[in-house]
Amino acid sequence: MLHPDWPLKEVVGTLSTTRQGGVSAAPFDGFNLACHVGDNPQAVAHNRAQLQAQVPVPIAWLEQVHGNTVILAEEKYDITQTPQADAIFTRSRQFALAIMTADCLPVLLASDDGEEIAAVHCGWRPLAADILARTIAHFRAPTSRIHAWLGPAIGPQAFEVGEEVREQFVARHQAHQNAFKAQKNGRYMADIYALATQQLKELGVQSVFAQAQCTVSNPEHFFSYRRDGRCGRMASLIWRK
Fold first, then answer.
1. What's the domain count of the chain?
2. What family, per the record (predicted)?
């Protein structure tokens, strides 16, 4: 497990899993937490139970669809559902919010008093569709009091994209062009950490902490869809203390 290094440890709990541990067989070995990738359902259930044992409240899972829908987990939220969304927000102490990734960028958000929290799945499509702005809009705290943690994701040396991806971001904001490096083949290397950080700071979130470990280049610790195709998923979680 990875534990975010940020100044909110007294008011929120957080963790980010790796692929190590668990009971899933290859190519999902070992700590796969996703039900949709073709893994043995009993193995996934075992892994999720193992994770739940380390978290003091029930985990709220999403069916992530690379969109920009934000789910609000209020006091009467049905923890048994898995709604289609790419971000989840709460003011409740009853749930831990989970985002699954295997190259996409997990972003955890919290107000400095820990009373408002969110987990966001920031693949390039959700980022281009303003998933961060849509999530932060639910916070009552001013953005100057919101902190962000960026977890392990595909690194800028591994994230090759086409011109159409660059165009979507640059059309949104000219500053995003600095997150793309042109290649001789006409494509670009994209820095998803830079894109998310730029968007956060545009929104007024200045306190950004990154655990910038490349999932593609570290097969021992991380699943990577771009590297392996068929693979498991890690999870990043946040909950109120």
1. 1
2. Belongs to the purine nucleoside phosphorylase YfiH/LACC1 family.
